[in-house]
Design goal:
heterodimer, A: mainly beta, six-stranded mixed sheet, five-stranded antiparallel sheet, 11 strands, B: mainly beta, seven-stranded mixed sheet, four-stranded antiparallel sheet
């Protein structure tokens, strides 16, 4: 099976940097995804990592270490609109390549 | 380009009633999925489809059925609603396994 763990809640200040961690255990890792979900809305795709290293997309970056079963999402220059839940999801080739989601980290950005 | 469209947005069902949650995508995606999301829990996969005429069970399929007669449509059927099916249901699609999903806006279902 798969275990995907991420902190339940985090708080950060507008303009700051925040790192949201995700650890996973899976037998057939085949990609890690990050999604953003504002309250009452659908998740939206943020990033995808399949090889080790850092992927940067504007203010958002995502890092992967397959040997450690670890990823993080880095948000820079935080804005109030970044207050949302951030979902880590892992695809497993031994599970029909289904994407399994963590419970999400609810980030609150304060002025 | 509407993306993934789900209807209805909200629904209250009585125990034992049946209903169909509709999902349509206009992106010509082969892959479609149904997830449910409960408070404090991750999205759980109910059913998925890799193309018209092909469906398969996900992690939590009991109490649900699906069909995929066209590329565009992937309805989810609840035959005998139970309180445990109170949840937010999301439909999603992707062009293949290697891409992120596009989600619909969700259906909030309450079974009383």
């Amino acid at each position: 099976g798969q275990n995907i763990d991420q902190p339940t809640e985090m708080t950060a200040t507008e303009g700051a940097i925040v790192q949201i961690n995700c650890t996973y255990q899976t037998s057939g890792f085949n990609g890690l995804f990050w999604y953003q979900q504002h309250a009452g809305e659908a998740p939206t795709f943020l990033s995808y990592n399949v090889l080790d290293g850092l992927e940067e997309k504007g203010r958002f970056s995502s890092f992967l270490s397959r040997s450690k079963g670890y990823s993080y999402l880095l948000l820079k220059e935080l804005q109030m609109k970044d207050s949302a839940s951030y979902l880590c999801a892992v695809r497993d080739r031994y599970n029909n390549n289904d994407m399994r989601f963590g419970a999400g980290t609810r980030l609150t950005v304060k002025p | 380009n509407a993306g993934v469209t789900q209807t209805p947005k909200f629904r209250i069902l009585k125990i034992g009633q049946s209903m169909t949650l509709q999902c349509t995508q206009d992106m010509n995606h082969n892959y479609m999925y149904w997830y449910r999301q409960d408070p404090g829990m991750g999205l759980k996969l109910i059913y998925y489809s890799v193309g018209a005429g092909i469906t398969d069970k996900g992690e939590v399929p009991n109490g649900y059925n699906v069909s995929r007669s066209t590329t565009e449509d992937f309805p989810l059927r609840l035959e005998l609603a139970a309180p445990s099916q109170t949840s937010v249901y999301f439909c999603a699609s992707s062009p293949d396994r290697g891409n992120g999903y596009t989600f619909g806006s969700g259906t909030r279902l309450t079974v009383v």
